[in-house]
Design goal:
It is a single chain. By secondary structure, the chain is α/β, with parallel strands linked by helices. The protein has 16 helices and 14 strands. The strands form 2 sheets. The protein has an 8-stranded mixed β-sheet, with helices on both faces. Strands 11-10-9-12-13-14 form a 6-stranded parallel β-sheet. Helix 1 crosses helix 3, helix 9 packs across helix 11 and helix 9 packs parallel to helix 12. It binds uridine-5'-diphosphate-xylopyranose. Uridine-5'-diphosphate-xylopyranose (UDX) binds next to helix 9. Uridine-5'-diphosphate-xylopyranose binds next to helix 9.
């Protein structure tokens, strides 16, 4: 099929690349000329394992192109994906500026039948509005179908998630459009959840909100477990065995960050409030997450009352492993807290080196701990889990390892004469 994808961010690039790889002819539209030039050379501006190789291969084969010319791309395509950013505004609501721009730009270009598929995460009712915008702009009803087809891609595993999703959510007005989706996704073996436009939009928000609630739930319990001398990883294991609960997203730690969970939770809160529904659960999840950094600072201060004078090394700056994304990173919030307390922080991350005052970045993980009194694991990169603890012990001045993600095996750390402090792991 001839497919146009509008937006070359995480979602747009993954969608374009995977569709091109499975037999479609894809043209991806991006406003920034510099980015288009880069992508046309097969260079990917984000860190996403496996994406660059697959993209390069399809650019080489000519199945994937990049352009700034929306009109040309739309003319060539019968399927148009909207994958533009829908960030959070200063009040926590969804900023639909780019989405609205695209809906207005698209209207005059629809002169043959197009299936317009929204991948961007948009508030409940937005796709219905998109439908109305086209009609208001004079596009004939027979010339388009609007479909809501939210993505559930995780950064770091985006390609895998697109190839092996647990479901394909499709919201539509005209059931005939399902056939187009089935043809597009011929290479994916997953059940379809078919609903109306608003239903699909809500599934996306509900999914991310539920994940956030689950994380905050275990993080709240971790604080109680800490006081009671209970190991929270054992609690998570125990409750997770109940298939109604499940093991996923029960890892206690610094809390959730990233571009999606905080933004979507906040948007859903606003969507509820504007409809006079009190979002008790959502607010609670957010407030637990907001309180975690202060909780850990208190804990660390208790361990090291004179910590301002100490050499503190933090491992991990991204919001989770296998990404270069630092948006809403809890690790960076922790760095910030130490800096605010007057500390000089030594920071190592495998892929990023954020320029921050009173922070020294290192290129080498073991260099970053020379003379350290305390090493804090803020993001659970594999490299940290597999560290050579003998070398760590030799290089450090002190002996405390604070594992803010419960990623390490305490016995392993202790066997090297190090002191292990985890999240509710007595
Ligand atoms: C999320 C959703 O998982 C994905 O379906 C959606 O499309 C986009 O948002 P992502 O933001 O890439 O994906 O990250 P995810 O893997 O969900 O992790 C979110 C945050 O939760 C991270 O900061 C992670 O460290 C934290 N987390 C996750 C925990 O603190 N504990 C857990 O048990 C799991």
């Amino acid at each position: 099929m001839n497919v146009c994808v509008i937006g070359a961010g995480y979602v747009g690039l993954t969608t374009s690349t995977v569709l091109a790889n499975f037999g479609h002819k894809v043209i991806c539209v991006e406003q920034l000329e510099e980015k288009v030039n880069m992508l046309s050379q097969g260079e990917v501006p984000i860190y996403e394992p496996g994406l660059e190789d697959m993209l390069k291969e399809n650019v080489r084969k000519g199945t994937l192109e990049f352009t700034t010319n929306l009109s040309e791309a739309v003319k060539r395509s019968s399927v148009i994906f909207i994958a533009v950013g829908t960030p959070q505004d200063k009040d926590g609501k969804t900023d639909l500026r780019f989405f609205h721009e695209v809906s207005n730009d698209l209207s005059p270009l629809i002169d043959t039948h197009k299936v317009i598929i929204t991948k961007s995460t948009v508030p409940i009712g937005t796709n219905e509005e998109l439908n109305q915008t086209f009609l208001k702009n004079g596009v004939s009803e027979s010339l388009f179908d609007v479909v809501s087809n939210p993505e559930f891609l995780r950064e770091g595993t985006a390609i895998h998630d697109m190839l092996y999703p647990d479901k394909i959510v499709v919201g539509l007005k005209n059931h005939q459009a399902v056939k187009v989706l089935q043809k597009l996704y011929h290479f994916i073996d997953a059940p379809y959840v078919i609903t109306n436009l608003s239903g699909a939009e809500m599934i996306k928000y509900a999914s991310n909100a539920f994940l956030a609630v689950k994380i905050s739930f275990i993080n709240e319990l971790a604080q109680l477990a800490d006081v009671c001398g209970v190991d929270i990883t054992e609690v998570a294991l125990g409750i997770g065995m109940d298939p109604r609960i499940g093991h996923h997203f029960l890892q206690a730690g610094l809390g959730y960050g990233g571009s999606c969970l905080p933004k979507d939770l906040s948007s859903l809160e606003h969507q509820s409030i504007t409809r006079n529904v009190t979002p008790h659960m959502l607010q609670a999840a957010q407030s637990v997450n907001d309180s975690i950094i202060a909780y850990y600072m208190k804990k660390i201060k208790k361990e090291f009352p004179d910590f301002q004078k100490k050499n503190i090394t933090i491992w991990g700056a991204t919001f989770k492993p296998n990404t270069d994304d630092m948006r809403h990173s809890q690790a960076l919030k922790l760095v910030d807290q130490f800096v605010n307390e007057g500390c000089h922080v030594h920071l190592y991350d495998p892929v990023v080196s954020p320029k921050l005052n009173h922070v020294t970045n290192y290129k080498d993980m073991y260099e970053s701990i020379r003379e350290a009194d305390m090493v804090i694991i803020a993001t659970e990169w594999k490299q940290f889990i597999e560290a050579d603890w003998k070398v760590v012990r030799e290089r450090m001045r002190g002996n405390t390892i604070v594992d803010c993600r419960n990623a390490l095996q305490p016995y392993k750390i202790r066997s090297h004469g190090l002191r292990y402090v985890g999240v509710a792991r007595p």
